[in-house]
Structure of ATP-dependent RNA helicase:
Amino acid sequence: MTSRLTTSTLSRPTCRVGLRRLRWTSTLAQKRSEPLASVYSPSVAAEPASDTPTFDSLKGKISNETLRALTSKPFNLNQMTLVQSFVTELLPGLSDPYNASTPGNHNIPRDLLVRARTGTGKTLAFLIPAVENRLKTAQQHAQEVVGSSGLSSSGLVTRAASAFRRTSPGPLILSPTRELAIQIANVALKLTEHHPNFQVRLLVGGASKTAQLSQWKSNSRDIVVATPGRMRDLLENSSHVRESMKNCNFLILDEADTLLDMGFRDDIDAISKFLAPPRTRQTFLFSATLSRRIRQISTSLLSPSHRFLDASPPTSDSPALVDAIKGNARVPWAVDSDDELTTHTHVPQYYTPLPSIDAQVPTLLRLIAHDQLAHGLDSKIILFCPTTHSTAFFSTVLRELTSDGSLPINNTRVIEMHSKLTQSGRQRASNEFRSGVLHRHGNKRSGRANKIPSILVTSDVSARGVDYPNVTRVIQLGVPSSEALYVHRVGRTEPRHRADLLLLPWETGYLRQQLTQFPIKELSVDALQSQVAALAANPATEKLSDPLSSRFVSLRPLLDTEAIRQTASSFLGHYLSLSGQLGVPHGKILDSVAAWSNMFGVEMGMSICLLA
């Protein structure tokens, strides 16, 4: 029997903004019977460091089945990334289970605080010791049970280990979003492909809780991947889950900074109280940043003798974190800033200040055209919008403008992603963007697949941890709600490509006040226009036809009035919450959002003022 992951999904209301319509739809609950691995297969590839060891060097440190998955099918990996080498260097001791009879025999620190960006291979870095710990813990328990019975039989040990795996959970991995949780679960399935009957339980919102409980009661729970809200709900309301999880002796927080940014601190604290006590529990914290809140929660959850591993490259402006030796413990030195952020400093980053509101859409189109002229059919862009309504609105705008020759390549696919889509809809959007191809005739097996440029228009559900391969550019439409979110958004692009930030006139203060430590260069509208014109003049590329501004002007009368109003209202809430960081008074924000709405011919008037 091979590893399997099953879950159920519930559909949520879907926001669809179209020409002359704004429609909210809902669908009936749907139940999945096939493994999610078959429909959601993420890329876990990451660039290895030139001087890191190979996975073959783990022979004798991990089980042969795990090593086989890494070095042959399904991963076929050779060299480790930096974070993978840092963590696996501590094997096999890092994966040894706690032994109550010899608690002082652990020479390797059991708890880890790891700073590593998304896309660096960190998922495998924590899954390898997690899987090995699960196997060793089950074997240790089985040997103790059989030994105490006075019997000696390998068959009895195997049966005792299987019984243990059906009743006691393995490592619990908490993820900030269900998309990232699904991604982690699928990587775990691939890693354990050669371990018979190894199972992964996925506990996330947006899926049937009844189905998840049924799977929990009837199957092994070797690895548990969960979102905090659903995990806490089950712990507090299901005695079966609560009784079982008190034996969980391994906790992993992935994207810990994002978990805290999303307000899950109380849930994490509550969940940890249901698990095995800290004395016997092993805990890993993985984070792209090392803020004051990360250091606070590490003090709460980690052993004083935890190991700090810094797999993020130092920046020229911020000192790299180093280990300080205090007795036998290695702990990170305190950093000077409250929120030291490590971003992808090797990713070229640009901001374009808009001279006026009506330059927003034409300039956005030029950025997209710039990428298509540079990368052709390989162009793969993620466009981050600040709100759900703006995501739906700009998806509609881009679909219309990409269908009438406004971009160098006519067959550009625009994919919409936000929290109002159903879980299956979000998975489908992720899979479409990840594949980078369009299947003809509606049949993936018999139809012909053509590579086409893609634009994923998304809210921040795609900023937190989900990897998409071969992204050529990230464009942020407006300012993010935090510096950490800026880091996560930029982290979605490939290192050799670039990130752009498009700022309306009232947003430029955010750059001066909040993002001063990042290597962001100015790219004016005129400079961008010149670059696009130069690329379009290249005979090897397709030329732009009519001016982009005129295309947008012709589209304005066709846009749905109510959709514009709702987008403007969502902008208002977003920018009012950031007025301090923007350095702009509320009155100026009200006037500016009203002007944005008026640009589309929609008078907001008192409706905005009343909303404020």
Notes: Residues 1-44, 315-343, 606-612 have pLDDT under 50 and may be disordered. The longest strand covers residues 282-287.
